[in-house]
Amino acid sequence: MHPFVIPPSVAARVAARCGTVHPFARLDPRRTALVVIDMQNGFMRQDVAHVWCPMAERIVPQVNRLAAALRAAGGAVYWIQNTLDARCEVEWSIMQDMATPEARARRAAAMREGTVGHQLWPGLEVRPEDEVVRKYRYSAFIQGGSDLPERLRARGLDTVLITGTVTNVCCESSARDAMMLNFRTVMVSDGCAAMTDEEHAAALVSFHLQFGDVLTVEECITGFAGGQAQVAAA
To answer: Whose CA, among 37, 63, 156, 201, lies 20 to 30 Å from 191?
Structure first.
């Protein structure tokens, strides 16, 4: 996994703004969703990937661990699948225009429904009670991206834990938009994967400074217990 420690200068700025370095250290698991972004063969299996992120396979045990802990505590798990369809080519044509014909062809081969690349990574522990959501933009929360916000609100979920790949594109985009749609948002530092340590760290620092919290898997699990105790005391 990527090494990451919140820089002291960043911690100080967050504490000055929020009154604490970790504003979402306590998590009510019954109101929390784990959102797993793009953990698909098309990013993780080198022979079919249109963009291969080697680090993504290494975070699978952490994602599975967090999913199991959240389910056990009464929360929900959502597996997000990056999906390319005919609408994307029209409604999101700029993304297509920014890629070479070869890159567009690779993306289409890997991200269309029914392809091997579109499938979730087989090592993920997806349970029948989980939900799988198609995503048509980098962000799962932007208009036109998916129906995830509506699904979460329908179940009374107001807190999201963002994991998956890649940290600084689809994960960060989803996390920022989630916060701006009024979800309490956490990026899970050892549950996200990027192409480089530098890109991973830059995304987490930028997010933490203004948009939400950055916690480890262990801190999230500890936060479930703290949140449950807080609810019980109230």
So the answer is: 156
